[in-house]
Design goal:
The complex is a heterodimer of chains A (333) and B (470). With 333 residues, chain A is mostly helical. Chain A has 13 helices and four strands. Chain B is 67% helix and 7% strand. At the A-B interface, helix 2, helix 3, helix 4, helix 5 and strand 2 of A face helix 2, helix 3 and helix 14 of B.
Chain lengths: 333, 470
Amino acid sequence: MELIDLSLIWAAIIAFGVMMYVLMDGFDLGLGILFPFAPDEQARDVMMNSVAPVWDGNETWLVLGGAGLLGAFPLVYSVFLPALYIGVFLMLAGLIFRGIAFEFRFKSHRSRHWWNRAFCWGSAVAAFAQGAVVGTYIQGFETQGFVYVGGALDWLSPFTVLTGVGMMVGYALLGSTWLILKSEGYIQQWAYRVTPRLVLAVLAIFLVISFWTPFIDPAVWERWFGHLRWIWVLPGLALACMVMLLWSLKRRHESLPFLATLGIFLFTYLGLLVSKWPVIVPPDHTIWDAASAPESQLFLLIGVLFVTPIILVYTAWTYWVFRGKVRVGEGYH
Amino acid sequence: MELDPLVLSRLQFAFVVSFHAIFPVFTIGLASYIALLNGLFYTTGTQAWERLANFWTKVFAVVFGMGVVSGIVMSFQFGTNWSNFALATSNFLGPMLSYEVVTAFFLEAAFLGVLLFGRGKVPQGVHLFASVMVALGTFISSFWILSANSWMQTPAGVELVDGMFQVTSWGEAIFNPSFPYRFAHMVMASFITGGFVVAGVSAWYLLLGRDVDANKRALSMCLWLLLFLTPTQALVGDFHGLNTLEHQPTKVAAMEGNWETRSGVPLLLFAWPDKDAQENIVELGVPNVASLILTHHLDGVVPGLNEVSPDEQPPVWFVFWSFRVMVGLGFLMIAVALAGLWLRRGGRVYHHRGYLQLLRVMSVSPFVAVLAGWFVTESGRAPWLVQGMMTHSEGLTPSLTGGMALFTLIGYVVVYAVVFYAGVYYLTKVVRNGMTILDEEDEVDEVERPKRPWSAAHIPFDDGPAKVEG
């Protein structure tokens, strides 16, 4: 009937958008989580300045992903949001507070410590909520037909608390390696000191989650211990990235730690996708069940294909303009 | 007491959307005004236009930022509280709402940065072009949103198959019967809002004797605009009302407080509609005028609320009074614009302290009128979420409990109170600072990005030196 499967294209677009979001907003949320542990106020200035030009652009992907889901896979939208009702509220409140804090911290003097707190708590809550979303996705949703019928706090379980904390620690690792890349002197030294501890914490939590997941969802067990041997490459690559990260920290590399951390996230994310594919609203609904009408998907696709390259070019340009180190007492001018 | 998730969700949506609406209503009008100012500066080279454009661009940046923050929540509300509605309408509303986001991102990436930070860095013509494109972009954004809303009022181009709306004609769905009227009415409202805010702030500066030349120009310009816009809006509103009469007669009956279908309906100036009794407890009206307005005949027949059963009637008193607030303020605005024309003789308009004070106060009036108007059109549709096809209770999230809805309602009120307080506090700082350019050393050290529009307003949030720590 259809010449091309629009649901497949849309699944790729959404997966790409979510990945962009996690990788990019991850490090600036991570800096917020690390904020209270920073050596001094000067270091906090540098941390914030290092993401100031890019953080809001990073969140573009969240909004684009949300809008894309409503247009292309409305079932995801209409099951995830009711199921994660409280979590979604906490995430939005966290993102709003840290967004406001970002803007006003630069403009304030006496009230600065309040904005510091808002930035830290907002980032931590948002990161936890996002991790809990991932955990809930693994756990699955109680649905009847196309309607969520579970309770308000079904999403909160020991497993999702663990994924929430895991996301916080993971984002903190992205933040600390980003800081190694963007800072120098005593701030960079501090980042070098905290990073190995974060790596160990991430490794521990990721291992527990990885071993726990197949027991939660039999389909995941089947996927990993069935006939698809090649997918073991993904966790292998994630571990290789972790080894490379530790090695590059010892050698005091500046950019490799961040790249290696991106690799850890990327391969873990791909591992999660292949665990669930093609189910998008676990345990039962596939991307084709969740899809909107083909004409609707096509109509929206035109706009998204038009605007995505522009956003990508713009993003790349921003990162290019603001490349290099952020120095103490200096914004970008 | 039983907590009703339906009532709480409607309350929450009303709160969030009302709070959000005040920002775009202002920025849509202001964007066009800034484009006009930049155009005037481009063609005449008069410095006053440039100073005005720079000042209002700062205000625009702050208000735009607040609109974005409050708008993000909106896009999740459909799913969290109205998931049945979101799923059922997704084939049409999904792409429409997503296109709004796509438009906004395109705008930010391409033109907002040039408008906010480009003055002196790009050729003047490019800057003017960017400001025109930003203004155009705000219209395109409202195009999608208003089309989506209008479709909920007057659904067209769809058929309901197994509980899902399937689009049969995109053209008919997008350009549904009430859309042109709503769009025109809303664009006019945005212009009037922009006009009254600029006039009010200019009046305030004139009272203080600050930047007299530029503010005289701004005030004069706004008063001419308002003199033309406010009566035209009354006319557009009338057409909009006739369109509503055709497609949503029950809403019009509620607006008029008219319970029975009859001829020679009076225009009620005051009444207390009682839905339980299905009549007005007291009423004071001008005979036959409602019939005249709605049918253009003194004894034309106007449909009443009794055409539908009481459970298909909207909350009548709320619609009735919201409508009177909107229309009352509309006529007040026309009167103020006319008074401005009268005071122009001998240039008294720039010195008459009473009138300038009045303008200051009037800058709030369009916001109230716009909200009242939305209350009319949204509650007037009740109990329908999609007129005649889906009710509020059918659209509600099935798993939602009263407790959950109450939790987030309180949560959003708290979050928005903080955002609003900080935003308005900061906006006041920007306006107090006026059109003076800050000294270099007072400049706050920051990175200017269009994704962070507040970085365009280089004004400190609080006073006093930075605390030395560590």
